[in-house]
């Protein structure tokens, strides 16, 4: 079982005189390395998508999280809720397949979330970035239907 916790710090440029962040990756023997982590980091670069299954302030334990790859949680410091995510895909077409399976399994409020370099995007941000990431046009068309 993986008990690693990854912490990402974003939007701290305005604090450059007040905060110092040193991220040191642990040295791990090639025999012990998990290639899934490298894949995950590679998929986060550029445009990617995940499916938000649910959002709740309490622990959410459901077998669906063993049925799909890349189960993650997200928590913003100003939000009491935890977002439960599944999948990690580079194209809207692939994440939409996962989304449809999740909805069929009883999660009608699931939604597709785009990311730019691992940072969650709002729909307004997607509107601005679709020229840089043309695949976002499919996401925006889907959201407008």
State the main characteristics.
globular, 5 strands, 27% helix, alpha+beta
SSE diagram, text form:
Elements: H1 35-44, E1 47-56, E2 72-74, E3 82-89, H2 92-104, E4 111-116, E5 119-120, H3 123-129, H4 136-144
Antiparallel strand pairs: 1-3, 1-4, 2-3, 4-5
Overview of the molecule:
It is a single chain. This protein has 145 residues and is of the alpha+beta class. It has one domain (34-140). The chain is built from 4 helices and 5 strands. It is globular and about 45 Å long. The model has no long low-confidence stretch (mean pLDDT 87).
Summarize it.
This protein is α+β, with helices and mostly antiparallel strands and 145 residues long. It has one domain (34-140). It has helices at 35-44, 92-104, 123-129, 136-144, and strands spanning 47-56, 72-74, 82-89, 111-116, 119-120.
H/I helix tally = 4
Q: Structural class given helices, strands, pairing?
A: alpha+beta
Output the strand order for the largest sheet: 2-3-1-4-5
Helix content: 25-40%
Tell me, rounded to a whole number, the average pLDDT.
Answer: 87
The coarse silhouette is globular
| Topology pattern, helix = H, strand = E | HEEEHEEHH
Termini Cα gap: 40 Å
Number of strands: 5
- Largest β-sheet summary: 5 strands, antiparallel
- Low-pLDDT runs: none
Domain count: the total is: 1
Beta strand %? 15-25%
Tell me the Rg in angstroms: 17 Å
């Amino acid at each position: 079982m993986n008990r690693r916790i990854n912490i990402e710090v974003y939007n701290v440029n305005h604090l450059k005189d007040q905060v110092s962040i040193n991220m040191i990756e642990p040295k791990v023997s090639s025999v012990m390395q998990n290639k899934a982590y490298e894949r995950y980091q590679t998929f986060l670069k550029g445009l990617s998508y995940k499916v938000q299954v649910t959002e709740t302030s309490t622990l959410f334990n459901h077998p669906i999280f063993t049925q799909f790859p890349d189960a993650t949680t997200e928590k913003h410091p100003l939000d009491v809720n935890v977002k439960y995510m599944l999948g990690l895909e580079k194209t809207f077409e692939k994440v939409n397949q996962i989304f449809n399976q999740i909805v069929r399994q009883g999660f009608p409020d699931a939604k597709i979330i785009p990311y730019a370099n691992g940072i969650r995007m709002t729909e307004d941000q997607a509107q601005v970035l679709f020229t840089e990431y043309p695949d976002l046009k499919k996401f925006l068309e889907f959201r407008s239907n």
